[in-house]
Target: isochorismate synthase
Amino acid sequence: MISIPQGPALRVLTAPRALAGSAPFLAELAGDSTLVWAHHERGMLGFGEATRALASGPTRFASLSAWFSELAQNAQVTDVVGQPGTGLSAFASFGFSRASSFDSRLVVPEIQLGRNADGAWITWATADPAVQLSAEGAEARLAELVADSVESHGARATAVRPGRITEEGFQASVHAGVARIRAGEVEKIVLARDAVVQLDGPTPVADTLRELSVRYVDCWTYGVDGLIGATPEMLIQVLDGTARARVLAGTLDRAAGATAGDDAATASLVADAKQRREHQFAIDSFTEALGPLVSSLEAPNEPFVLQLPNVWHLASDVRACLAPRPDGGTPGALDLLEIVHPTAAVCGTPRTRAGEIIRELEAVDRGAYAGPVGWVDAAGNGEFGIALRGGMVERGPDGADAVRLWAGCGIVADSEAPAELAETWAKMRPMLQALGAP
Ligand SMILES: C=C(O[C@H]1C=CC=C(C(=O)O)[C@@H]1O)C(=O)O
Model:
């Protein structure tokens, strides 16, 4: 299913922009509905909305990709910066499952601020034929949108409630998953659960994202229509024909490792055969999916340990040169999403059967959790993280929001339910802390 807006073609202007002193990138964030993608003081912020499209079901990737191509073909673009992310670009979030009722989406903001190693820019996109596009006009429009935005502060978390999958339900599904693995149906399966943080007011979206970006500097901070978080896992980044990914699987809670000391704990993670198996499944699923589309692919033989404030992960950075297609172009980020998603870091091995078992055992719609989240431009560049370590804002009728958090774990034949449950709490910790949960 797809919902496509009709209307005049977009006009788009991108102009260079002076960096505002040494202020952090997310200091420019304003309002609860801001669109965000940020990593190491670089990324994109979106304000207002020029257009969007929604899609769900098995064709969600293809439908939104076709919509964006048509939008780009009809758009009149003046781009004097010419970098990945400039000109026409959109923020995006996709449902994890083809069976999800979540509306996958591409959102083109009216104003976008971008920053990379070479500088900063502002992009203005509009369907209003009366608007005169200029760099000064873009700054003025940004100031209006910021002035009109509502930014919530100070709501307190009053409780953490069980989600649709309780702790007991999760442990039961881990037992069932292990039994299915031992029976030979699958080799690995990723099972997840949710928990709900109740707030006493509107979610302080911007404050939460700022805090995540300060504490979790090595993660990609994201925000798209109430889906907020900071993910350590890069599903696929496409910049000028080169694809990169940070594949994660294998986790140790830093709180649990505290007694052993950091060096001993990380050495035990690297040496742990169960964790290494979980990691290898994730690497294999990624490289096998991407293999037919690349001319070269580099994946390290040994993972490194990614140290986050809450957990250590086994991590591997993979890099590939995309092979030219018959038309001479290389596949763009949106084309690749459907091929690489879902990896064995969030689904399992083999993928199709693992997906079926997840649907059966979890029996709850994951929505956008573990789906791709990020941005894409009209040249096919884009960055998509996996929507992990985050939550979805649920508006309360009385103005008191709830934020539904999700976390999951890779299950293999020797997984144990209590340890996996503890791991889900460790993975929810960044959001629990950022929301001030008890
Ligand atoms: C599924 C999640 O994490 C994945 C990414 C890194 C490590 C994982 C693990 O060790 O189980 C998971 O595969 C999650 O955070 O909800």
